[in-house]
Structures are given as structure tokens and as C-alpha cells.
Design goal:
Length: 418
């Protein structure tokens, strides 16, 4: 009963946090537009929000594996609450500027690094291993519904009333989320749910602890292959995201409203995928789900790169988003199931560091790829090219991963196929 109650409280805090995030992320661009018309200055605020993932993912992983995870969650929630309250007052009083807003975004981004990373290590302490896909699917669906649908939609409406209201509501949701976190029963130290503080080995060397997570991934054949695969998947996906708006506008000939509809269709596909993955896990092993998801994404995005029909692309986006979530939820479940809980913070941080680090490179490569292609080909083909390249790389990556892991036994995979 205590575990079920904790799961409900954690899910409530998680959903409220992402609801507030959706409101804030919808409001920040509008707030920036009232402060400056310089696109470079405007980009600073969003960069500040994402930068903590690159800088602090690995160190935060060390802390998660050495201290009470409940305390980590409370600390992140409290920090976020204070930052939002002060930011709301600054906006209300007219004291906000681009540098000040960037500092607040950096702080909020750092709190998100701690919160999101810690949640991923607490989930396997609350649910049975056989139910990890279902739990991860529920949390993923909660994030998508509250942030990408409710948060963004409500944010767009609330902004019309007053620019400060989305931030104020986010601050209120942060207070309620913090109360949920404080009410969690137990401290959730690294290891099993019954692990006590005395049983946790003290941290002696920061660098050594951080590198232990990297070494763990490197020396585990399956996790090493999964890390390389994840970098490849994220890199190619970032390339198409960087040029997506131009593809929609210049190839599909859609306006901003239609683009929003297209993204909403993809979001619905993500939600359906998050709920279907637990059922799919009963039919196939996690390795089979990983490989089939990559192949399906490769084929689907390849077709996107061959068509200019907006209705067809909408259906393809739905299907691609479905398999993206299946892949992500399955990968998270693999880590939670196969990595000892006392190492999960550091190992998970390695994957997050690789993903967020490579995504920045991918966005730059996407723009560069289209620019170089346009020197030889027309703009339509140049904007289709990232999808075609992604298709080829995904299919080849799936083949190579399947071949490398073909003879990897179940005992070696640490119950990955169990």
C-alpha cells in the first residue's frame, strides 16, 4: 500500500511539474519578444535552459547514487519553486531583462536535470521489474499530455490575459508538486527500497565516481552497443528536427497553424505508443522491440522524405512518434532492469549526457547539410535529404546492432530478454 501511495504521489508531482513547464515554455518566447527583437539574444534564454544537461548530467548522476533520492527530489522541487516565485515577481514588477531571464532559465534547467534524472532511478524502486514498461509508459504519457498538450495549449490562451500568469501558475504547481514530494514515505537511498543510509558507501573521489558510470557502460557489451546506438539515433533525429519547420513550410506548403496540427498528431502518436509498449513487451523481448522500432522509424521517415503530400506526412509522423516512444521507453526499462540500482544514477547520466550533447551537434549538422545540398540540388530535395539520410542510417544501425547482439546470451544480457 505504501509503495502504491508513493507511486501516485511521485506521478502527481511529475505531472504537475511538466504541466507548469508547458505553461512556462509557451510563455518564454513571448516574454522574450517583449524584451528584444534580436534573434541572437532571444536564443540565449533557450540555450540557458538546455545547457545544464550538458554541464551537469554526469555530476548529478554521482549525487543520485550517493544520497537520499527523496532529498534530491525535494531539493530540486524547492529550488524550482523559489526560482519561479522570484521570476514571477520580477516579471510583475517589470524588473526582468534578457540576462536576468537567462539566469532564471539556467537555474530552472538545472533543477530539471536533478528532478528528471532522479525520477528515473526512483521508478524501479516503486514497481516490480515486470511492470517497468507500463510505469515508464505512464510517466511518458503524463509528460506528453501535461506539457506538450495541456501546458502549451493553456499557455497560449493564458498569455492573452497577461504575460505573468503562466509563470505564476507554474509557481503554484511547483508548490503543490513539492508537497507531494515531501509526503513520500521513505528516503529512497541507492539500492533496494529497504536500503538504509548507513549501507550506502560514502563518496570519496568525485571524478572516480563519475568515471565509474562511464566505465560501467563501456565494459558492458550490451550497454556499450546501446549507447552507440542511442548516439546515432539522437544525432540523426536532431538533424531532421533542425530543418523540420522549413520542410513543412517549403516542401509541404503548410502554414503555422497546420504545422501545429502536424505536431499535435505526432504527440498523439507518442501517447498511444507510451501505452502500447507494455503490451508489446509481453509479445517480444526488449532487444526485439529496440531493433524493430529502429527499422520502423527508418522506413517511415524514408517515406516522409519521398512525398510532398501533407496528409500522408501527418499519418507517417503519427507512426514515427509511436515507435520513437516505444524505443525510448524500452531503452529506459532496459537500464532500470539491468543496471544495479546503486549505479543507475551514474549510468543513466551517461546516456543523458550523450543524448543532449549530440543533439546540439545534430542541429548544427542539419542546417549545414541542407545548405551544402542546395549548392547542387533544389531546395525541395535538399529539405527531403535529411529524412532520406536518417532512413538509411537507422536501417543500417538496426542491422549492425542485431548482428552484434545475435549471439549475446540471456545470462549475459542480465534479464534483458526475460
Amino acid at each position: 500500500m505504501k509503495i502504491k501511495s508513493n507511486y501516485t504521489k511521485l506521478f502527481g508531482a511529475f505531472s504537475l511539474t511538466f504541466l507548469g513547464d508547458g505553461l512556462t515554455l509557451a510563455a518564454v518566447p513571448w516574454l522574450v519578444s517583449t524584451l528584444t527583437s534580436d534573434t541572437l539574444y532571444a536564443s540565449v534564454t533557450m540555450t540557458a535552459l538546455r545547457l545544464p544537461w550538458l554541464l551537469f548530467s554526469l555530476p548529478v548522476g554521482v549525487l543520485i547514487d550517493r544520497y537520499s533520492r527523496k532529498h534530491m527530489l525535494i531539493g530540486a522541487g524547492f529550488t524550482r519553486m523559489i526560482l519561479l516565485l522570484v521570476l514571477t515577481l520580477c516579471i510583475w514588477g517589470g524588473w526582468v531583462s534578457i540576462p536576468i531571464l537567462a539566469l532564471f532559465m539556467f537555474g530552472i534547467g538545472l533543477s530539471r536535470v536533478v528532478f528528471d534524472s532522479t525520477v528515473q532511478t526512483v521508478i524501479p524502486q516503486l514497481v516490480d521489474q515486470s511492470k517497468l514498461e507500463k510505469a515508464n509508459g505512464q510517466f511518458t504519457a503524463g509528460q506528453l499530455i501535461t506539457s506538450d498538450i495541456l501546458g502549451v495549449a493553456l499557455g497560449g490562451f493564458i498569455i492573452t490575459l497577461h504575460i505573468v500568469f503562466p509563470f505564476a501558475i507554474d509557481a503554484v504547481t511547483a508548490v503543490i508538486a513539492l508537497l507531494f514530494l515531501i509526503s513520500l514515505k521513505g528516503n529512497f537511498y541507492p539500492g533496494d527500497t529497504e536500503t538504509t543510509k548507513k549501507e550506502v558507501r560514502p563518496m570519496k573521489n568525485w571524478k572516480r565516481e563519475m568515471w565509474s558510470g562511464i566505465r560501467y557502460v563501456y565494459h558492458d557489451r550490451f550497454l556499450r552497443g546501446l549507447a552507440i546506438l542511442s548516439v546515432t539515433i539522437t544525432l540523426m533525429y536532431s538533424i531532421i528536427l533542425a530543418t523540420q519547420i522549413f520542410f513543412v513550410r517549403d516542401v509541404l506548403q503548410l502554414d503555422a497553424f497546420a504545422f501545429g496540427i502536424l505536431i499535435s498528431i505526432a504527440t498523439i502518436g507518442s501517447i498511444v505508443g507510451s501505452q502500447a509498449v507494455a503490451y508489446m513487451r509481453k509479445k517480444w523481448s526488449t532487444k526485439q522491440l529496440i531493433i524493430s522500432s529502429i527499422w520502423c522509424m527508418g522506413i517511415i521517415y524514408g517515406v516522409v522524405g519521398l512525398t510532398t503530400n501533407a496528409h500522408m506526412v501527418g499519418g507517417l509522423y503519427f507512426c514515427a512518434a509511436f515507435f520513437i516512444i516505444v524505443y525510448n521507453v524500452t531503452r529506459s526499462s532496459i537500464l532500470q532492469r539491468s543496471v544495479p540500482n546503486e549505479m543507475l544514477g551514474r549510468v543513466g547520466s551517461v546516456f543523458r549526457f550523450l543524448s543532449f550533447g549530440i543533439s546540439a551537434i545534430g542541429t548544427l549538422l542539419g542546417g549545414l547539410l541542407v545548405r551544402v545540398s542546395e549548392t547542387t540540388f533544389d531546395r525541395v530535395f535538399s529539405l527531403q535529404l535529411p529524412y532520406l539520410l536518417l532512413s538509411l542510417i537507422y536501417i543500417l544501425s538496426g542491422v549492425i546492432f542485431a548482428m552484434k547482439m545475435k549471439n549475446y546470451s540471456e545470462s549475459q544480457q542480465r534479464n534483458i530478454n526475460a
